[in-house]
Amino acid sequence: MPLVLEERRGAVAVALLNRPEALNALSADLMRELAAALGRADADPAVGAIVIAGQGRAFAAGADVRELAAGSPLGVATGPYFADWERVRHLSKPVIAAVHGLALGGGCELAMACDMIVAAEDARFGQPEIKLGLIPGFGGTQRWPRFLGKARAMEAVLTGEPITARDAFMLGLCNRLVPPEMVLDEAVALAARIAALPADAVRVGKAAVQAAFETDLDAGLRLERQAFGLLFDSADAREGMAAFLEKRAPKFGPRGG
After folding, report:
1. Residue 130, class by beta-carbon neighbours within 10 Å (0-12 exposed, 13-18 middle, 19+ buried)?
2. 0.90 cut: is pTM over it?
3. Residues labelled catalytic
């Protein structure tokens, strides 16, 4: 059985983590398949946005601890596992996590590596690595402060205790909070809204927002102005402004054009 199932729902690509018997623990093989599936979706001009979800009772309960325990420090630090995580971060198209059940450890870090999160009411987010004598290794110590601030990040990392989906939503970690049976459909609907918009503007808009977390304000503003100027003369921008002035629906060009 493949460890990642791939679906297409219109212009939305869906990647389903498929280790339900292990609560979708993120083994090296699963991450390799996920990175490959996401790469294919990112390269497909017919795809406008991507959704990651989990089969079974959880989004992902963490990294595969049995696999990690059998590894060496050098192998863990330099192996392809980290490269596959980096491929998730560098996707050009928006990625939405549809989270239900547990999103712990690496599962929480995978959700936070996405651009948006739609959470089921039964979801739990947390970094329990401290209880194994470890710390988060796939972005947890860096993304929690960016989402929730220093104090809540310290609590998440240093106690290992999870937070509820409602707390995550109230604190700004999630975009939507929905009943469990609706989480995938809601994530796909949000992705489809984005996929219907001009592809170049979506891609550049994502990159500009990401830059806010990776540069200082002056550099981010320069990047934003450059991107705005480049898009200003695009066919989609001209059509969008003309449609607004003419009080009609815009007819944007084909995706990938």
Report:
1. middle
2. yes
3. 63, 106, 109, 129
